[in-house]
Amino acid sequence: MKKILLGCIADDFTGATDLANNLVRSGMRVVQTIGVPATPLDAEVDAVVVSLKSRTIAPGEAAAQSVKALEWLQAQGAQQIYFKYCSTFDSTAQGNIGPVTDALMAAMGVDFTIATPAFPDAGRTVFKGYLFVGDVLLHESGMQDHPLTPMTDPNLVRVLQAQTKHKVGLIDYKVIGQGAQAIGERMTSLREQGVGIAIVDAVSNADLVVLGAALKNMPLVTAGSGVAIGLPGNFGIAPNPESAALPKATGLKAIVSGSCSRATNLQVADFVARGLPAFVLDPLSLLSGDAAVLDALKWAESRLAAGPVLIYSTAAPEALKRIQDQLGVQQAGELVEQALASIAKGLVALGVGQLVVAGGETSGAVVQALGMHQLQIGAQIDPGVPWCAANGMHITLKSGNFGTPDFFTKAFDHIA
């Protein structure tokens, strides 16, 4: 068995493909596992991304799952470990970014690491420790309305300090602009001051490449997916189109969407405005059993042959709040996730071989329902979103916040 170079732990399934996508773009051969494998790796790859569904579970359980993933990756010979979280730093005052970072640092015996969700290609930048989404601060981007992890403070030093036992510091844009050596010197200075985790500014891909060089000998890196573009070069790997090769796509086309983000709402609206077939799933109808799922599949069956169909529960923040008020936040989310997972399974049984899934929690439920254990990572559709291959079909797991308004139609044009 060839030892892997980079071992990655992602806190949700779409985030895992986001990270894998950037590694593939930079030339690495990557496989994504669904959960922690029970057996040793049997693929010849440079990096493995272990995808967990740990972003919103209890902090202790998230930490335990992440350490289990770490131990498996270390057993595969990983030379560097990468803990990946969302580019909007999705978390609560209790975690899970801080608790998982703390647990990994303790398990690896390290006293310092960095943290940055910067991903300029997707409009996520960090300046003076503040996270921007496009041209606005995080708490003005729509993330303040997230149903599970509302983000109301864009100051990442403050956000992370509330979650971790380590002192949090900052490596600002002035240091980044001075190059890798200056970054290394700043990290040494922060460690001497007792800082355990440093938020890092980055406003361009050039910043991430410079940062990547400075992280060459850092055992543990924590970040969004952006930093990944600067790491393969440390292992002597350059971009290579063959790293993204997938089998030829076949089968019918469908989309299931459970995200309520602004980006996904725009994507649903664009699909509908084109006059393409779309079925809206009312979460309240799911209380009465499987009838709504069967109705959706019956609706899709007669339309699939003509092209892609969309089945969605996406809703505007006001409508979502009304549903949550009636069902509770957790029950509403679980009902929709499981319904869409059942629908995805039914669609595959009807011949769907090209499936787009929108939403992190929805993606997790869908890949588990489809019995997918390992994804081969292909080419990028939009920043952070690649096509993948598994179980003889093609699937893309789109984070709710990612993608242009025409993503749902563009994805199929891309794979064709």
Compose a concise summary of this entry.
With 416 residues, this protein is of the alpha/beta class.
Biggest sheet, in brief? 15 strands, mixed
State the domain count: 2
| Beta-strand proportion | 15-25%
Task: State the oligomer.
Answer: single chain
How confident overall, as mean pLDDT?
Answer: 93
Helical content stands at 25-40%
CATH architecture label name of the largest domain: 3-Layer(aba) Sandwich
CATH superfamily of the largest domain: Putative sugar-binding, N-terminal domain
Number of H/I helices: 13
Query: What's the CATH topology name of the largest domain?
Result: Rossmann fold
**Spatial strand order of the main sheet:** 9-10-5-11-4-1-3-2-16-17-18-15-12-14-13
Q: SS-based structural class? A: alpha/beta
Distance between the termini: 34 Å
Poorly predicted spans: none
List key phrases describing it:
416 residues, Rossmann fold, 2 domains, 15-stranded mixed β-sheet, 18 strands, 22% strand
Summarize the topology.
Elements lengths: L5 E5 L2 H13 L4 E5 L12 E5 L7 H17 L4 E5 L12 H12 L4 E4 L7 E4 L2 E4 L2 E2 L18 H6 L5 E5 L1 H4 L3 H13 L2 E6 L4 H10 L5 E4 L28 E6 L4 H12 L4 E3 L10 H11 L7 E4 L4 H11 L1 H21 L2 E7 L1 H10 L4 E9 L2 E6 L2 E6 L8 H9 L1
Parallel strand pairs: 1-3, 1-4, 2-3, 4-11, 5-10, 5-11, 9-10, 12-14, 12-15, 13-14, 15-18
Antiparallel strand pairs: 2-16, 6-7, 7-8, 16-17, 17-18
